[in-house]
Amino acid sequence: MATTSVMGGVVKRREDPALIQGLGKYTDDFAPVGTLRVAFLRSPVARARITRLDTSRAKEIPGVVAVYTHDDVAHLGPLLAQVPVGKLRPLLAAGEVNHVGEAIAMVVAEDRYIAQDAVEAIEVDFDELPAVIDLRKAASDEVVIHEELGSNVLHTWTYHGYWEALGLEDQTPQVDEAMQREDAVVVSLDMVNQRLIPVAIEPRSVLAEYEPGYGRLTVHSSTQVPHALAGAIATQLEMSIRDVRVVAPEVGGGFGCKLNVYNDEILVAWASRELGRPVKWTETRREAAGATIHGRGWVATATLVGTRDGQFLGYKLEGIADMGAYSQNFTVAIPLLGLWIASGQYKMPVSWTVDCVVTNTMTTDAYRGAGRPEAIYYLERIIDAYAREIGMDPIEVREKNFWQPEEFPATLGCGFALDSGDYAAATQRLKEIADYEGLKRRRDEARAEGRLVGIGVGSYVEVCGFGPAVLADIGFSWSAYGLPSSFNGSGLVRVNPDGTATVIIGTGPSGQGHQTAWAQIVSDGLGIPLDDIRVHHGDSATSPMGIGTFGSRSLAVDGTATFAATEAVREKAAKIAAKLLEAAPEDIVFADGGAHVAGSPDRGVDWKAIAQAAYQGHTLPEGVDSGLEETIIHTPGNATWPFGTHLAMVEVDPDTGDVELLEYYAVDDCGNQVNPMIVNGQVHGGIAQGVGQALFEDAYYDQDGNLLTGSLVDYPIPTAADLPSFQLSHTVTPTPVNPMGVKGIGEAGTIGSAHTVVNAVVDALEPLGVKHVDMPLRPRKVWAAIQEARA
Amino acid sequence: MTVNGQPVSAEVEPRTLLVHFLREDLRLTGTHVGCETGYCGACTVHVDGEPVKSCTMFAVQADGANVTTIEGIASNGDLHPVQEGFWERHGLQCGYCTPGMIMSSVALLSKNDRPSEEEIRHGIEGNLCRCTGYHNIVQAVQFAAARMRGEEPPAADWEGGE
Amino acid sequence: MYPRQFDYVAPTSLDEAYGALGDDSKVLAGGMSLIPLMKMRLLSPGTLVDIGRIPGLDAIEDKGDHISIGALVRHSTTAGHPLIAQHAPALAQAAGMTGDVQVRNRGTTCGSLAHVDVAADQPAAVLAHGGVAVVGSASGTREVMADAFCMDTLTADLSPNEILLEIRLPKAGPGEGSAYDKLGRRGGHSDYAVAGVAAWVKMDAGSITDARVAITGVGTKPSLLPEVSQALIGTDGSESAVASAAEHAVDGVTVLEDLYGSVEYKTHLAKVYAKRAIQKAIGSIRA
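Output (structure tokens, whole complex):
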């Protein structure tokens, strides 16, 4: 089928020329004449009743146009959520605040500096209430944060019961029985998977322009989900989607935090409509840290039972996940993404329970990996502890328990089926590229010198490419935003009259190179040169409905839609070319910028001629309509299941606990690759984020609910100097779920890396008898673990 | 002050940060803002030839100075070798940190035409990137360094791969 | 991100600067600490006196009996200057580990001393080198030992109408060596010091005749550790002698817990880095 070789090839990114010259346009770069600027008054306390709120002084400051509080926006209701379990966030604090950073009042002014002056002039008094921060304490309901809910526990996810309609078997008895076996080895650890701040380098920004004469609203936002945001704004402001256009221009990193719809987006849109002027808000880094969603935030006990010779008999996880104060987009559903991959690459019964608990902190939601890094972290850490317990090589233990290639599709205890995989092959490849035996020798030599050098290995399975239509039945649905409930994707492929192609997709990428990869797909299918194809995305008014870019889904879903649209265009073009060439459609071949008759390269027409004929109408073959474009909306039948195995080598300074990441190897399998260069880039960045969680990052609230890591000074993300270069390789196991055989790669590096680094550090500390250290492995904690082991 | 070779003058409040002056008064939006503590480096520009963080400087401090922003790096439409390196070696994804990262890399190479990997990593330590894991940024700078020395750049590490 | 309003003065002479200073003013040199605080509105001086246009403050000079570092000397200059490399290696190292390239291009060594951040690198080195702060005002200049100049957290011996004009460092003589080492917040040498120690050591005929050791990161301010120095003097600088001297690394220091270290850990690190810095200083003499 493919007549050119751009698919699967390294193609330089078409996004880059603008970006490297500083000519890319991000939301904050747009400044229509007369744009008003917004600043929010945010709560300095974690939990309190607001006893007085006086905006009169602020309103008097010259240049201040409006100051809004809850009373002004109460009629709009709370912020809509996809999974409305828990307390929904008021657009502005409704008489009480429930976390530091919660928006209390909104100032609109001629200038951002003035807006900030006005924020300081707002007078507010609080009657403080005890904050609930500790997860286990929150779960105990000693203090219930939202009295009307009756409990801080919003929901409990279980492996067999997450969706009753499936009628799944509870495997807990199997796991419990295995623990009673005479030959059972039971290993258990309490572990923290700490809360993280996403830190997209571009702060979120939203610019709304309501045009009263036209009754329409155009919103530029740094969002991953332009269609979803359009739906949310329309629903919340009681407008029609017809009249709301959301444009996501260049988006400076998302990582899940721009997948939420935020109260600020609704408020800015509303204020623009109220005032009839453009209104813009761009968050500060402090706001990004405390008022944009966080990720992770779990405590759990993981238990693995197996035999002495390395056969897994069962896995149990009992955890608590922090939801924060209010539920936003997917908040309560995030652990479910982890549940589906609870058993990783291994065949064994699973018992898995996670309580979703409210605390007086910022909302948690999807951050790169979203539930999956947490689930894999617990599993892969406990496997490592088990391997140590029985004295078996950690890779060998894993290999003994992998699903085998012939077992796919492999139905899991949670009802889903792994699509395809060859876990042993990827692990074998890793051993080769890392020279595993050589590394172990080097580690052992270093140990003999008294140095603390360790090797850590970790495997993962990811579930992505969301997703199957059944998600809606489980409660994942976009219907709250007035949208179809399903997770769809879209592609429109149009051959223009001049023979070039325009591609429009529903995604909202934030650096993933869609303009390049999608051009490759279309070029491959039609034989139109890459330079003659332009890809548009991120505009809800011009693109067909597609829910957005998140969960490593764009290629598998929107890519599939585009692939199918390309096929449809080609089929139609073949009929047109056949008439022009006086041949049969089935004999038409597309290549080198046109079509020719198979076996007769001389009998050809270029795309311009085909397009001209297509738009002409009267010369078309019978039964062929005018025009040359196709739109496909695609909802996949299954998710896709990428996988891989990673390896890290570290050295620990025994005197300080300082960890140095020496080497990092990764083998990832995301099925077929459209552009290996982009795939590698995604893995690199993913690894860096996993390493960041393992070594540096921690969104830390003290017990009074103060966020002590509200700036980059105290929330250290990795710098270039903190990381080594990475050694990558891949295996390719295409998925049968979509015609391109692609799975997704956006989150893989993150899902595969945090536990790998921790496993390496624990390996380094093994000679001292250390069994576990909680992330982030800052020197203080590693040193404390060393002291404890030595004591 | 002079910005990208052009003399500019304006009246601003003393509290106006240089980055806001560049972005909002001059509409040079290639220089970005990523934090308020001087940690992210997205706002890096050259003031009198040295890379500095334009969010940690008031515009009035740069009165009379020679400022170069990302928009002034290419010459006569030709990309600077560092820009070329970032493109060739996939040294950017979302592109938000990229202008600052390029400004720091240009400054680094002006002082050291053959930096080691470690020197590159330390040279761009003041520029945070959340997308690339820095791997390809290091490769991009190595590419540019070779080009600027008139040598053939090292092969990309995806070349001759699987 | 958006500071409060202030009046801005950019004098071209010291006299003019002194005239502009008052109770509600702040001196602006590099601005690396001051401007972020103003952006977060944690500090809002009524008048900012930018000394950046006053000539003659930006040099590192050999003044015969001492080395002078002017108020506008940037970290990057301090880190790379041959006079500092020769006479104050610990300060060169500390300046090289301060911030990042851009910060080093703007921030000043004098500003770092005057700010008295609990975790700044260079003040410790200035202290270990026996530095003197030269403070100017309309009524003349005064000299303060750097240790006394660093009074408390974010508090220098500097009134609102004064300017830290220069830091004077004694010139190095034979048999002297110094070094700075730290654990940064991000591990290695990256970022502010969780614990950092600067050591200056003088040896004669194989034994230590004088020493000054200063610590940063662990306490309320960068400070000298006289007990460590005393314990070193008279020893041969052997590993065991250094280790036992380093045991005094938090004597007289109020160790504070923060996100990066418990009191116990910081106490331990102080000793580790005291030992490391002293050994490096001794090593540099022997080399």
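Chain C touches chain A at residues 1-5, 40-41, 100, 183, 185-188, 190-192, 194, 259-262, 265, 268-269, 272 (CB under 8 Å).
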